[in-house]
């Protein structure tokens, strides 16, 4: 029988760091495996240098951990667009993890998929978990493939919760080229540099504040027998141009924009239906986009 500790894979990233701190504040013992230099070192959090493919480390920690949260990813839709083989760095280690977890049948696995990429351009918005999966990017295709393997893992009797988050943002998010719209917009405002937008800026996205994302993971972890699949978003859509307008209003600073031709990997419109997770767990987002951007701007401006 697995222990009471919680293992975070890729736990030194944006969402993982916020989750680790929240769990530690609740008195949980948290093990974090990450290749990044952690910023979440505090009582209750034990950081292990490594990655998802470190079999010996996993075999050492899994006996202590009744819950495993898989947040690790080595790609973004843009980074693997011209290099689909890069997605093997996500696929193969996760399959190795499932192989190891076969020896720990009572361990609850929570996997963060992608609500922004697995559906492609859905026929209807908001899109529910029952909609067809039709990714446009190799990154999204990898998430769909992993969900397929996890479904087979469920069929063998293991509890696996799949969360499909929208675009998570908030204080603590690192700057990555081509990823994290809110963070990128605010960084460009802070620097006074032009913002590059691919397309006309009318692509629609759903956004979830990091604290709300963490709360969804905690509620999933509190249901150790759960094997559901849930969208995690706001249920509201905003165009890129609207996000830019909110950011400029919050900061009081205008930013020049450079529009470039649209990319084939970018979904035109995606808004997540969150009725299922609300009905099952009671979760619903508490922080709207305007407040969330204001909080993120305050954090960035004070950094």
Describe the fold and architecture:
With 303 residues, the chain is of the alpha/beta class. It has helices at residues 14-25, 55-61, 88-101, 138-155, 181-191, 210-221, 240-251, 275-281, 289-302; strands spanning 5-9, 30-34, 45-49, 65-70, 108-112, 160-165, 167-169, 195-198, 204-205, 207-209, 229-232, 238-239, 257-260. It has a seven-stranded parallel beta sheet with strand order 3-2-1-4-5-6-11, sandwiched between helices. Strand 5 (108-112), helix 4 (138-155) and strand 6 (160-165) form a beta-alpha-beta unit. The mean pLDDT is 94.
Please sum up the structure shown.
By secondary structure, this protein is α/β, with parallel strands linked by helices.
Task: Provide the descriptors you would attach to this structure in a database record.
single chain; 303 residues; alpha/beta; seven-stranded parallel β-sheet; 9 helices; 35% helix; 18% strand; globular
